[in-house]
Amino acid sequence: ISIGDSTGTGAGEVSYKNGFNFTFHTDNLDFFNINNLADLKFLGSVALDGTTTGNGKSGIIDAQFSSPKFWFENYGLGQTSLHFRYQSDTINFSNIIGNNGGLNYLGEIKIRVADDGAQKVGVQSAHVEIPKLDLADLQNGVFGKKLTLPFSSTGQGSAIIDASGPFALSELSYRIKSDVHHIQAAGENFDNLRFNIHGVKGHAFVDEISVKKGHGTFEWSGDIQPNGIMNINIKGRDLRIADFQYAQSFGNLDGDLDTQIHLREFILEPRVLIHGETTQMSFNEQALDDSDFEMTLSGEGLKLNGQFFNQRVNTHLIYPFSKNNTKSDH
Asked: What pLDDT was estimated at residue 274?
């Protein structure tokens, strides 16, 4: 048997009374050579051992599947093996075991590939455990074709994912629980990230998101609507300025920082509102007075209003990204 440059073997029989029954084997089936499989997007080469049985009305495909590098719906699964069963417009992926770099996973997924009115096309049920999670491999390996972030990240931890619903994230229902340690992201180090959220038909809700940074924490709350509109609030408590890598570039700068951050509007074009207060400030062991500021960042530009060092310096800055002029009052 050959499909494009993929080859395999098969054997079986067709009976008017009993239908058909075939076994098949291939060491290298490249999905590039398959035009359509249940309107799903597969990419990679796989080894298959299995059977197909049925009659003129229905059929069953049952196979053991393994691949050194596999993609499903543009999610990078890396090296994976599983049991595959197709029956009655439903695909069961069971005994899933795989890894993508430093990320290991296992699970069970059931997918509906035809709409019969009562059951829609999409994920009927999914349960995936990630006992070994690496943020860099998650960002670049798993989501590399789905999402591009403007910064790199590293960190190790674990996660559990349950999901059901249409393939589109804007319609999917899910629950994610994860815990990640020793994180580096956007040039900063973080001690721990607890990321617990759930989604209902694409509407995402924060259950518990907390980020530990040195002496303090960032606590998240809020939701993101299916259309991508955010209502996310972040409170930073008991933070030390010296714990931030960016602050270290200014020399021996320290002090306490409390901040509130609000993320609004569309997730890919956010409006970020920041209010911060600093106390117990010092620079090169010289005491500095307290300060507070408000900053707005959006696609339109940057706005900063601040009263620094007990109002010794007052700043009003508008920096439009779309124009060449900058206004500043001190």
From this structure: 96
